[in-house]
Amino acid sequence: MSVRTIxxxxxxxxxxxxxPVDSFGKYLHELLDDLAHTMRDAPGVGLAAPQxxxxxxxxxxxxxxxxxxxxxxxxxxxxxxxxxxxxCLSIPGFAAYVTRRERVWVVAQDRRGKRFKVSGTGLxxxxxxxxxxxxxxxxxIDYLDSMDELIAVxxxxxxxxGGATDAEDEGKVRTPALA
Length: 179
Ligand code: NI
Hints:
alpha+beta, Peptide Deformylase, three-stranded antiparallel β-sheet, binds nickel (II) ion
């Protein structure tokens, strides 16, 4: 298991669609392990394979200590709307308000290929939608009318050093959960 480099905005690999997974062996297991390890190191609440340069239809989401490994995921149902601040590990230092579905139901396969269904609301729902977008080569900034909507936020190192108060003084906002 290793911490991989997270690609950032401008890297064309972020725009590649994840190829469907049809082999549930060592390569996939190592990829999922690396995704979880890299997500926790960042730290973030989700990470998709294209963000570490693998055009594969797999991602991880972890909210409130519940880790989800999603292989070939798709949203089968969604309800409501929720507008909140959203950030991305591939776009460090910024966040923006994005309208998402309030609740989604996702059908996916686990690392052994077994199908399961999971639903989530709030941050979990947002993280599912954000990661599934990554698997489609899509970033949250694609929903913005203008890049002027981006809000500068402290990067995680600054936040860890208690920089949040300073950041507020500078008119910045607290860093939202990143995925
Ligand atoms: Ni992201």
